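Dear support,

I submitted the protein below through the web form. The confirmation email said the job was done, but the results page showed an empty box. After a refresh the structure appeared. I'm attaching both so you can tell me whether what I see now is the final result or a partial one.
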Amino acid sequence: MSDLPTIAFAGIGLMGLPMCRRLLAAGYRLTVWNRSPEKCAPLIEAGARQASNPADLCSDADMVLLCLADTAVVREVVFGSGGIVEGAKAGQLLVDHSSLEPTATRAMAAELESRSGMRWVDAPVSGGTAGAETGSLAIMA
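What the results page shows now:
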């Protein structure tokens, strides 16, 4: 198991919860965060660690995955107070599964890399909650 990358995940909603359940079932060490912390409870019970804020997601992760509502929410989680940029390090990868406006994504990716060295992969998913539950999502990176 030690050869698997460590993963952190922000956005434990209709898509994020089943995606995280599948990551835990596959043996990944997982840290989770959500604006409504109680949504993390089933994942904590299953072995995930709960981050105190988005920056904390970066403390022990090779990759930080996002599955958030929209561009404004992603911007807040990445660059707001206690945001990912405050904990990000060169060599880490942010993988954004949210469906965002491409120009905004490119600008945020450039800012994150210039401020922290963390790289960004735009990777929206297709397949809905059923695909997340069955592990059959299409990821367009």
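Response: this is the final, complete result; the empty box was a page-load delay. The longest helix spans residues 102-116.
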